[in-house]
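User: Quick sanity check before I run a bigger batch. Here is a single chain. Can you write out its predicted 3D structure?
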Amino acid sequence: MGSFFENIKRVKIWQTTIVYLGGVWALIEALDFISRKYDVSSKLVDISGLLFLIGLPVLIINNYLSINSEVKHSTLKKTLLYTIFLIFGVIGSYYVYERKPGIQYHALIVDNSIAVLTFDNFSTEKENKYLAAGISEAIRNDLGQIENLKVISRNSIEQFQKLELTTPQIGSKLGVKYVLDGSIQKFKERVKINIVLLDAEKDTQVWSKSYEENYDDLLTIQRNIAADVSNRLSFTVVSTRAPLSGVKNIEAYELYLKGMERVRIPSGTRNELKNTLQLFDEVIEIDPEFAGAYLGKAQAYLNNVAFGRSAFKDVKDKTIELIMKAMELDNGISECYSSLGQVYYQSLNLDKASDYFNKAIRLNPNNVTAYVGLGEIYFLNDNMDEFRRFYDYAISLDPLILKYKVDKLGILNFVKRDEKYITELEKIVNDTQNDYAVWSLGMMYAVNKRYNESIKTLLSRKVKGASTNWVLGYAYGLNGEKEKAVEILKYNLTKGEQTYVPPFMTSILYLGLGDFDSALDWLEKEYEEGPGYFTIYSLKADPKFTPLEETPRFKALLEKMPFSRV
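Assistant: Done. Predicted structure follows.
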């Protein structure tokens, strides 16, 4: 034993280990910087770190054996052989994992995290399905205002409730430690809510409770549940000021839930958007002091713009007025500030938009809209590291909603025009057949000048119409199929005489046909009517506008933007 320690001293193993670990730390930091700056997979850092750790015992054994010539060569040979096998095993496992079919999403589990499942509706009345969903969402909103508690968005939650998954599976895929489940049953003028708090990692029940009160006291029950759950998790609910704040009439509350269901998952049809606005008008008529109703109506107007059903300039003032009314009734609602952030983003006032998004996050650290908005502002300001950071956090809060992942890939492809982003999006499309992902893939093919593939992809979509076929027309034009491009252009122009069609779409169609003057006419009209989200980051980086970059009119338009073109 004495000779063993003497040998260690002779080869200076401790000094070697310290120097080696210091070098490894520096290399890992460098690799991490490269992975973030050049969008290399973060798995590179993980695999490299593992290989460096494997190298440490090899180095120590090699140094130790170097003093004993009798065993040096045979033992060292075996050690190196085993190490090579281990390295190939690690790399092989990584390759197999990466090549698995399907979106293998397993989020990093955070201890201070919870998923509130949409409660089961055990009431006999079908209409009460809105009630069960609304109470669950209200509890999410209340818990979401707790600092340092990660609360998963409802959109991702409902993806799981269509499947039969165990609690540990839900926890693993959503990256949460706790899951809150429950049921609601309304009978006459009474309501009963049963809830259970589960430890998803251990698959054990932490706590459960039943609440039974008069139906008119429903909102009090909801707030009590949030407070009880937070206490069980050793958190304090500083404020329970969500969009439900101030509601007094249960009839108004039920209508509000129906309206918010349409705001949250809109089909985008003109009739639906019109009916949604009417629902909120009914709520306001019944309960004019209900802040959430004004906010919901404002969000419906923003949906109108997002789906290309209204010009932004036509709804901007009334949207701000509605939000301000909601804030007058309750200035502690996070969604008011994130909605104002959206308004000022489209108004090209990025500083003001940023202020409102940050305020929204301070009130609710789980406000997905605010993180996405800030991410896009960082993109416009050429800070791609922060763009990724904010988008990635939004994705962690809503991991199964593909829109954020798809939009992130689209923006990165605008900036870098790298085929790897197409490969990633192709995988999403193959795994999900999600229509928005299919449309985005068609767009990405067109941006990367793969026009045949763009046309084939866009023709495979089920959804058609003026709001979706402009990219197809663009691809036809540049693929030499002018007649088909002109046919789509005529359709858009005719449609625009009957109802609103965003000028940006017509501009892109003229670009595909090589009519740059007309493209600029419609692009300037888009600016006058208030540019949409897609228009803004297209002006920032979309290669489709490259042919216009040297024209005086395009340069003049860019001078009005609060950002420079990539």
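The CA atoms of residues 413 and 421 lie 6 Å apart.

User: Great, the batch can go ahead then.
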